[in-house]
Amino acid sequence: MNGNDSSRQAPEVEASVDYAAAPAGSPIVIDLQDVVKVYDLGGSQVQALKGVTFKVRAGEFVAIMGHSGSGKSTMLNLIGCLDRPTSGRYLLDNIDVSRMSRGALADIRNRKIGFIFQNFNLLQRTSVWENVELPMLYAEIDKHERAARVRHALEVVKIPHKAKMHPNQLSGGEQQRVAIARSLVNKPAIILADEPTGNLDSSTSGEIMEFLQTLNREQRITLVMVTHETDIAAYAERVTVFKDGLILREYRNESS
Amino acid sequence: MSFRHVWIIFKMSLRALARNKVRSFLTMLGIIIGVGAVIAMVSLGQGAQRQVQEEIASMGTNILYVRAGSMRSYGVHTGSGSLNTLTPDDIEAILRECPSVQLATPNASSMAQVVYGNQNWSTRVEGFNEKFPEIRNWPVDKGEFFTETHVKTAARVVVLGKTVADKLFPSGDAIGQMIRIRNLPFRVLGVLSRKGENSWGRDQDDTAIVPYSTIMKKLLGGINYIQQAMISARSPRATYTAEVQVKSLLRQRHRLGSFQEDDFSVRNMGDIAETYEATNRTMTILLGSIAAVSLIVGGIGIMNIMLVAVSERTREIGVRMAIGARPGHVRIQFLTESIVLCILGGLLGISLGVIASYAIANFLMWPTLISSWSIMVSVIFSISIGLFFGYYPAHKAASLDPINALRYE
Prior knowledge:
The structure holds two protein chains of two kinds.
Chain A: H1 3-20, E1 28-41, E2 44-57, E3 61-65, H2 72-79, E4 87-92, E5 95-96, H3 102-112, E6 113-116, H4 128-138, H5 143-156, H6 172-184, E7 190-194, H7 202-219, E8 222-226, H8 230-233, E9 238-243, E10 246-252
Helix pairs in contact in A: 4-5, 4-6, 5-6, 6-7
Chain B: H1 3-19, H2 21-59, E1 63-68, E2 72-73, E3 76-77, H3 88-97, E4 101-116, E5 119-128, H4 132-136, E6 140-143, H5 148-152, E7 157-160, H6 162-168, E8 178-181, E9 184-192, E10 207-211, H7 212-219, E11 228-233, H8 239-253, E12 264-268, H9 269-312, H10 314-322, H11 327-364, H12 372-398, H13 402-407
Parallel strand pairs in B: 5-10, 7-9
Antiparallel strand pairs in B: 1-11, 1-12, 2-3, 4-5, 4-8, 4-11, 6-9, 7-10, 8-9
Helix pairs in contact in B: 1-11, 2-9, 2-11, 2-12, 3-8, 9-11, 9-12, 11-12
């Protein structure tokens, strides 16, 4: 890590701690401590994250912003336990996941994280019901419990009547609702959304964002969302902006 | 991973295969044809083998043929049977003095024209004693066989083979009729049951059996020696002992010194059977291995398609990993898919092989025999092929990095 960089970024980073402490009293679910991520690209080393400390409390709705190359995608992969930090520590729900094996990380993703993707990533030629059921199959949840949770999740996302349909029979908004239902069924500690509205038109985008906001407010589900659009980030309570592998600034959205 | 989990992954694999029914079937086709070919080819070889076995068993594996030996004059061998040292008395002595011998009959034969009314037929007229049906395991179909009295009196009686009976008596009953053999009248006592062709293609039913004494006295000009004798040992296992006893008795009776060659030869059916079986076994192995090559080609086809499936489903693999599938889950899922393909293909291949071997038996009239071991071996083989050729694609799928897999277009 470069010493000059950290001194230049220091004020904002320190300020972020205050913001992170906002919903006072609730426990910290995401706790990244001085995390560095270095990629080895054919001999030359690229520092994607240069020592980032980032915390999210239970029940928060945080947006991560930044241009491409800012390190936000790397952040998403680390928070989502799809990748491990080169150095630093990551506690997810008080479990240190920074040195876990691929298999153990898969279990963590299964139980602690719900994913929502830009392109929905539903299994094609597989019914809505089966798509939503999938995370529970890997979690070895028994059949009756699975059925009950699928039914409930589809009601939460307001598409219970589409259970037997296949993703290609649904609109983009509906597909994203299915993905949200799928992310909810294992009752994860956090839901991680990667450009959730990137493939949707603006009215559907608004619909999905309001829906995510409602989930966060009414069910106190912790949401971390990566986006490059300011108006989408505006739905979050707190916004963290990345630049060149460091946190540039953090702010709270007063309106939300 | 619990059993229930494996079951769930098994169902996932089935669903994945069902999503691509045509491709799954085409992938299986290699295995179907391979297993089918193995089963059909092995059944063909086994069928041929059993036919020879049955034939030899029907002649009796406990049978010994004693032939009069060849004469050697000035270093030139004449054909076997040309010595006149083997006599019916030798056969009497063998029966009397060799404990391992159960039955024996002298045998003399001659080609002759047989005539009934305006029908005539050229056939081999063979002389035996009354024990013939028992030794050859060849019962009379109609009428009866001649008796010891007929043999002792050199009676002009004949028992016809089925082919000869059909030729001389195209319609109507042969029993009790008088036929002429070399212009001598013979009374037909009976007709033998059908025996069919032997494995070297000779029609065994093209024969007429008369008492050996009759053939010696009436058809061969009153000779007192025989060309051959047929001896049955008490059991197939006693054949070798019987052979030793017969040889030693004949050497003694023929007063052969220890440096003199045998003036007779003894062959047993067991030796002949072994030669044929060895030939057939080689054929079966040859046919089976050619078919096995097609099975391996089928396996390579499965590997090919599974590799295509892995790259085609990279994104799906990424999604599954993101939502919690361990690399082991992914590996088992793909491995299960290829094993299921192979087992299903194997089962369909077994049906195809069974149908093919029935078709071969019914339309080409080649004998086939489906053995349970060839089915078992095919099933085990196809599971192994699934494992072997499925492992690499499954491993490739399991080693995918979820981040790259999710980004894969």
